Amino acid sequence: MGTAQLTAVPEPKYWHLRTVLLRAIDSEFTTGQVIPNERELSARFGVARATLRQALDQLELEGRLVRRRGIGTLVAAPRVGVPVSRREEGEAWQVVDCATAPASERLAGALGVAPGEAVHTVRRVRVEQGQTVATESLYLAAALLEQVPEIRLSGAPVAEGEELGRAVLRRLERLTVDGESRAVELGVAEAEEAALLQRPPGTPVLVVTTQYAAGGRLAALAVSTYRADTCRLTFGETGLVEVTPVSAVRTAS
């Protein structure tokens, strides 16, 4: 077997400029401060406007800068600290809607049920400091929740949408969860998630898939999509995933 040789790849101009801009941002500007316009920055660093825009776009994608119409480009605030723990979520998650439908083969395989079996899908968004930082789809087999006494809200029959979603979640809370596991991967926001996150499709996201076990079987599957430009995930000693603030000045089924 021959020895492979690595070929050095030249660093793109915009990437080098991104690094230079980061140093300038860290040393000259503070959170919320407007940086000079494109014309001034192009002249200062001796680069073409097209190269500068690429660098600025990259920094916005990473959450270091944020653009505001009528104001300009600002140094973004540090990433939001968001604990991702079932017992610490509190009122952070807000139900958007809920639907009950037969499980597709793919969902049935992931949830451990037969294809076509009725599954509740609860969609929620997570708001921290007035900003939507995550969206979630929570899947539960309807047959499993039939074991739990029916919960009616305000004494009225459960309706479609938000009210049904809350009722499903309250039933889930009454199940004895034996354990949970989480997996994290990098992805991009599809159109539906992007709309809920108020970001363009293709925005980098952190996808957290959580499995809840109850009674010796998989009880629920949650797929949470966090904005990668505002959140940083770390793993604690307990094995739970939590999001912690970034100390340096940084922005943005």
Structure commentary:
This protein folds into two domains: 13-75, Arc Repressor Mutant, subunit A; 93-243, Chorismate lyase (3-Layer(aba) Sandwich), CATH 3.40.1410.10. The chain contains seven helices and ten strands. It has helices at 13-28, 38-45, 49-61, 105-111, 142-145, 162-174, 191-197; strands at residues 65-68, 72-75, 93-102, 118-128, 131-141, 179-188, 204-214, 217-227, 233-235, 241-243. The strands form three sheets. A six-stranded antiparallel β-sheet has the order 3-4-5-8-7-6. Helix 1 (13-28) packs across helix 3 (49-61). The chain is elongated. Residues 151-159 and 237-253 have low confidence and may be disordered.
CATH architecture type of the largest domain: 3-Layer(aba) Sandwich
From the 3D structure, determine the CATH topology of the largest domain: Chorismate lyase
CATH class of the largest domain: Alpha Beta
- Number of self-contained structural domains: 2
Strand content: 25-35%
Structural class: alpha+beta
